[in-house]
Design a protein that fits this description.
The complex is a heterodimer.
Chain A lengths: L25 E7 L7 E7 L3 H13 L6 E6 H5 L6 E8 L7 E8 L2 H13 L6 E6 L4 E4 L17 H14 L2 H7 L9
Antiparallel strand pairs in A: 1-2, 1-3, 3-7, 4-5, 4-6
Chain B lengths: L18 H12 L12 H26 L8 H27 L4 H9 L16 H22 L5 H29 L3 H20 L13 H4 L7 H19 L4 E5 L5 E6 L19 H11 L3 H14 L1 H9 L7
Antiparallel strand pairs in B: 1-2
Helix pairs in contact in B: 2-3, 3-6, 4-11, 5-6, 5-7, 5-9
The chains are: A alpha+beta, B mainly alpha.
């Protein structure tokens, strides 16, 4: 029977008797914020299959910012050395610390071939850090038209900018404007 | 809400490594260079980064527990929506940080199990009670405010996957913090009853907030691995002073009084007296303040705080109750629940 842990969680000190679960495979998630943007690496997640990965990806990487399309690929598929004739999606990480950004596509016979084509067609003489490539057929796409990602209802309650104005007014009512400016310097405004 | 500032660091400094590789690595990170998972790194760097990310992830998911309890008791729909979103964000941060830690070599499953069997820790501030709605307001303002100061510096660290996660997390922390400010300002412009609620909660959270940044710097702080390898870019005492400089005058402007408090074993305040050291040093621009009670800090971090057992028990309860879901997802089978 499930008791209500909110009232009094059972304090247990004996050994865990639940089974360890096998690790879920890791998926790489790319999001596209506007139609004119390229798909950019948002992060990774662990999920047992593509459908669960898509659900998690929407929750973790899609719903808290404007997002019109997502791509999801199995991390192992980015490493595969098997020959596979396909159109490859190509991503470049220009510097260490950067996110991988989609630069285009190439028809190729393997990942190695795809990455060579990426260098000649999209990188050229420029410096870059790493390239990722994935056969188009291995990429799972979520299109904002068919599967809801970003909700068009009012989301201001869950964004900093939804509070900026009213909070500033409330501070201005009790503190000198310059003091409020100083106080707000640490606000991480670039993240709003 | 969270941070990895007070991970107890007992890590070696890479002395077992090839000295040439180590020197090149250190020169690279000290010059602002970044490290990606497939780059060479000292084993001690990898294990320290793993522990930082794991501790941070643990803190995110345990931190969501006291707040989650208040969702059903939020004072109105707008606050309820915001608190629900905040709790969802925190758990999401935990997910992303476990992902970073997992890539450094420890399975997610092992991390979840170590958390609920007490082998690993989470941020100490979540071992304190949250008895009123005003505590929710103070956590969002003070603890998320402290986390932003800390994570703002962590976002300039040296490990690529961690700093990318930090930037993403900070965007959401900015919402938590603004929301917290809004709630505190609302309480402090309200009735006498609301103001008293806010003051009582402030008394409970000011100490944990300034202790948030972890113990005093050691004399050799800058030579220690976390600073030398640029995992941290500011010391605990620097961040603490910055926090007090920002929050002490702001709190006073709202009408809150900064007290030094004595607490009982349940974390409830038994005696509060105005901080005698609280004043602005015009020369340095720094505010004086009474240090947190470090004896209490170490007592709580060792597991003897007001809510340690309760938090771990609730996390363990959720893990155990979720077993059939994990089995169903993995095997398409549900084991019987008694």
């Amino acid at each position: 029977m499930i008791t209500n842990p909110r009232i009094k969680p059972p304090i247990v000190t004996d050994e865990l008797n639940t089974q360890e679960v096998h690790a879920f495979p890791v998926w790489e998630v790319f999001t596209k914020k506007k139609e004119t943007d390229a798909h950019t690496h948002a992060g990774s997640l662990s999920a047992p299959n593509a459908q669960m990965a898509a659900n998690f990806a929407r929750e973790h990487y899609g719903q808290d910012q404007v997002c019109c399309s997502m791509w999801i690929g199995l991390r192992d598929d980015f490493k595969s050395t098997d020959a596979c004739e396909d159109t490859y999606e190509l991503f470049v990480q220009w510097n260490a610390g950067d996110r991988h950004v989609h630069v285009g596509q190439a028809n190729a016979s393997s990942r190695e071939d795809a990455e060579t084509k990426c260098k000649t067609e999209f990188v050229g003489d420029k410096e870059f850090y790493t390239i990722w490539s994935l056969p188009h057929q291995a990429m799972h796409a979520i299109d904002g038209d068919e599967d809801m990602i970003w909700r068009t209802t009012d989301q201001s309650y869950r964004l900093a900018k939804g509070y900026s104005k009213i909070v500033r007014q409330k501070w201005d009512a009790i503190r000198a404007s310059k003091e409020v400016d100083d106080y707000q310097k640490e606000d991480l405004k670039d993240t709003f | 809400m969270s941070a990895s500032a007070n991970v107890e660091v007992k890590v070696k400094d890479g002395s077992g490594e090839d000295p040439e590789k180590l020197a090149a690595f250190e020169a690279h990170v000290q010059a602002g260079g970044l490290i990606e998972p497939n780059d060479w790194m000292p084993e001690d760097y990898r294990s320290l980064m793993l522990r930082m990310a794991e501790h941070h992830a643990n803190s995110e998911i345990v931190g969501a527990l006291p707040e989650g309890e208040w969702i059903t008791r939020a004072p109105n729909l707008k606050r309820k929506l915001a608190l629900t979103a905040k709790v969802q964000d925190e758990v999401g941060h935990g997910q992303m940080l476990y992902e970073v830690a997992q890539d450094l070599g420890k399975s997610r499953n092992a991390m979840l199990r170590d958390l609920i069997t007490g082998k690993t820790k989470y941020h100490n501030c979540f071992n304190y009670p949250c008895p009123t709605w005003a505590d929710i307001c103070m956590i969002a303002w003070l603890i998320d405010g402290a986390a932003i100061l800390n994570q703002g510096t962590l976002a300039h660290g040296s490990f690529g996957p961690y700093i990318r996660t930090m930037r993403r997390i900070n965007m959401e922390e900015a919402f938590h913090f603004k929301h917290g400010e809004d709630m505190v300002l609302t309480l402090m412009s309200g009735t006498e009853h609301q103001k008293k609620m806010a003051q009582d909660a402030f008394d409970r959270w000011w100490g944990p907030s300034i202790a948030f940044f972890g113990p005093h710097d050691r004399p050799d702080e800058l030579e220690r691995p976390a600073m030398k390898w640029r995992m941290k870019t500011a010391t605990n005492d620097e961040l603490r002073q910055k926090f007090v400089n920002r929050f002490a005058p702001a709190a006073m402007a709202t009408g809150l009084v900064i007290n030094v408090c004595e607490k009982d074993e349940h974390g409830m305040v038994t005696k509060a007296t105005p901080d005698p050291l609280l004043k602005l040093d015009e020369e340095t621009g720094n505010w004086g303040f009474t240090q947190p009670d470090w004896d209490e800090f170490y007592r709580v971090i060792r597991g003897n705080g007001p809510c340690n057992d309760e938090r771990v028990a609730l996390r363990r309860f959720s893990y155990e109750q979720g077993e059939w879901v994990r089995n169903a997802i993995l095997n398409g089978q549900t084991t019987s629940q008694n």
